Amino acid sequence: MGKTLFTFGYEGLTLERFIRRLEAAGVETVLDVRELPLSHKPGFSKTALAEALRKAGLAYAHLPALGCPKPIRQRYKADGDWPAYMRAFKMHLARQKEALGDLVSRANGTRACLLCFEADFKRCHRSAVAEAARRAGGPAVVHLSAQ
User: Fold this and answer.
1) For the domain that residue 84 is a member of, what is the CATH number?
2) According to the 3-state scheme, what is the secondary structure of 42-93?
3) Considering its fold, how many domains does the chain have in total?
């Protein structure tokens, strides 16, 4: 099997289950694509998450430019219009050439996984990030689930 870029949302998982799933998939590096790497779930904010991953032998990097900007998130929260959300996010993503290049380089050099909150990759911006990386020369994309 060639290189793979995984994606995974931690919604509904404990930190321990999340890390076990990453290990089972052979992930080496977690690439956090939340604009603000904060969480109400214990262990999933940037510093605590990076430390837990380090203890498990996994690398961590935060790529904030590939997160969804607050105005786009707020508009979606107000109107629930997913197609409009994705159009706006993809316009933002198209302007993130340097960050996308960094992601492609990392994903081609290690078994990487994009991290975000939402369990359903079909309703998360990380799917658009992964597809943009693939089109820019990144590896094949596999969306992980809790199972």
Assistant:
1) 3.40.1010
2) CCCCHHHHHHHHHHCCCEEEECHHHCCCHHHHHHHHHHCCHHHHHHHHHHHH
3) 1
